[in-house]
Amino acid sequence: MSRRDPIVRPGVQSAGTISRRLRLGLIRRLPFFYGWMIVGCAVCSNVARQAAAVATLSVFIVPMTHEFGWSRTGVSGAVSFGALLGALAAPFAGPLFDRHGSRALLVGSAVVVSACSVALAGTQSLLWFYAAFGLSRMMFSTPFDVGTTSAVAKWFVRRRARAMAFLSMSGSMGLALIPFLAQLVIAAHGWRAGWLTLAAVVIVIGVLPQWLLLVRQPEDVGVTPDGELAGAGEANGGSRAAAAGEAAYTRAEAMATPALWLMMAYTLLVFPVQAGLSLHQAPHLVARGLSPTIAATIVSAFAIAAAAGSLLVGAIGDRAPARATLCASAVLMALGAAAMRAVDGPLLGFAAAIAFGAGVGGILTMLPVAWANYFGRAHFGAIRGITLPAQVGGQALGPLIAGVLHDATGNYGAGFAVFALLSVLAAIVAVFARPPRW
User: How many C-beta atoms surround the C-beta of residue 243 within 10 A?
Assistant: First the structure.
């Protein structure tokens, strides 16, 4: 396939039994760009995927280990098992989103997570728990990540950072809502009812909107990214964006560019910090003399700062170079890690959490934007599929780094110093990660 081939093949239809002509007429009559409806569907999927989040599992750990007598290490292993499955599946899942779009695959992923939640409600053994949660976590790690970012990236170019910011912020919303809902049900009806409730929630918000409303890409309904109407020929087979010089690298072509490997290095450096400091900040704050209530409040400030960071970066990310915002985000994370290491009271704790959270919001928003800006929409899923294992691997490595160094030294000082160093290295790498020439 030539690099200049159009993004859309003639005759492709992507909304099931609804005819393309009817969809085109309806979408053109809408008072807003249909891409924002796609963002809404992706946001719903991003909230639904939190049923398999570590934060959600955390509210089930005490009642389940109390009933079965499992160790915390045994339960935690299911998270690593699922991440490993996700990393192995990513290179194969990515191209599917390019060929078939996000609609069917996101719906299928939500159905699997819902079924796994039902299975978890019936857990009777650790092996059963590993099978059910591991599969659910695999969906969280790969299909949901690639599917949601791919759906948004294909509908936006000029306003891509702004659209991706809403998607990034929805992850924080889901982490605030889903574990809280699960805890309410567990307190009233037990942990098995908690899993069943999550299964129902995932179906409602992770299947219905996507099945009814998701469309693969704007050219399928006669518009171009960001809402311009396409000409007659472009609506069927062409792409104004591609004609205007939008990059459309294949996976093999992207792998031949220094930019891809620099971006992967950035990913591998920054995500251990994101996961490791996120997980261990609360026990570190308590160990530094803060009360559990203050520590929990600081963690909440981190989550709020991450959401605010997503919106701020989204507002400037469409005008600033992606590598500049990625560099700034890594610097904020470095400052947050260094300040968290030196915490001696609530004030510095809040400052550290806000800096770190803003940096995390920045990377979660701008990394998908950078992949799409650098390599184009045509093979976004395939390219994300080969780069996602670096993110998943980094997220698995970070908590381990902090945990091992804590056990060796008796505190988190060495681990957080490593996180600050990794963030500085990531900022340096970002400076050199220039877009490839198309």
Answer: 12
